[in-house]
Design a protein that fits this description.
This protein is an alpha/beta fold. The protein contains 8 helices and 7 strands, in the order H-H-E-E-H-E-E-H-E-H-E-H-H-H-E. Strands 3-2-1-4-5-7-6 form a 7-stranded mixed beta sheet. The radius of gyration is 18 Å and the shape is globular.
Length: 244
């Protein structure tokens, strides 16, 4: 199932998702040191927020996403992006491949084969993920998140939660695997908007619900007193690819 493929879903994703992707460059540099890349490809680039930071570290930056609507938003930002699936990448060879918040939807074997075909020897793969981790201090909200939101809007099944190199993965060397959390600020409207950009809600929309009705349900059930400090958890894996 393809999420965020409708105009409203893509617009909401672009408007409400936290713009925190520059943090990823710090994680990458912490592993590889300061690097300049020739050709970078952002796989599942979405609306381009994960693609834009790459412009500061690569001579040529491209992005691909399976959703035409998401790609339209990225193109409107002046980015060089195209509609393509993760297992049908452009024919150019890249020395940096990045994937943000998408690898868990991919078939692992097909993804790794596709990435290898698109990679130069000694390319770097940077696969990372953000996930909403609730409020920093508000137990009432976190209880609501667990006992109401995720009950009414359960998470769709994922292929693999975090990417890790396995013993059988030929040519791949795991350079780093880290996790943590950053703090994001959201007011009530921004929080409700953000929650409607998750695949949990997308699945309900595809089943016939509307974003507006879901917003009303969330607003009516969510605790009234909410301060703005929320945890945005992250994990990342940096991999060196060698063709051998």
């Amino acid at each position: 199932m393809t999420y965020f493929a409708n105009p409203i879903g893509a617009e909401r994703y672009d408007r409400f998702r936290p713009k925190v992707h520059t943090s990823a460059l710090e994680w990458l540099a912490a592993t590889t040191g300061p690097c300049r890349y020739r050709n970078a490809l952002d796989v599942a680039c979405g609306t381009g927020e994960s693609t834009k930071p790459l412009l500061s570290i690569a001579d040529v930056v491209e992005g691909v996403d399976s959703s035409f609507e998401m790609v339209s938003h990225a193109r409107a930002k002046g980015l060089q992006v195209s509609v393509a699936a993760y297992d049908n990448l452009p024919s150019r060879k890249y020395d940096l491949l990045t994937v943000c918040m998408a690898f868990h939807w991919f078939d692992r074997s097909r993804a790794l084969n596709s990435f290898a075909q698109a990679s130069e020897d000694s390319a770097t793969w940077f696969i990372y993920n953000f996930a909403f981790a609730g409020h920093s201090t508000d137990d009432e909200f976190n209880h609501w998140l667990r006992s109401w939101y995720y009950v009414h809007f359960p998470s769709p099944a994922r292929k693999e939660q975090d990417f890790r190199v396995r013993n059988e993965d030929k040519g791949l060397v795991e350079l780093a695997h880290e996790s943590g959390a950053i703090v994001i600020s959201l007011d009530r409207a921004g929080l409700i908007g953000y929650l409607t950009t998750q695949s949990n809600v997308e699945a309900k929309v595809q089943a016939g619900s509307t974003y507006e009705s879901i917003e009303r349900q969330i607003d009516a059930s969510m605790p009234e007193t909410i301060t703005s400090e929320f945890r945005y958890a992250y994990t990342y894996t940096v991999v060196s690819f060698n063709r051998g």
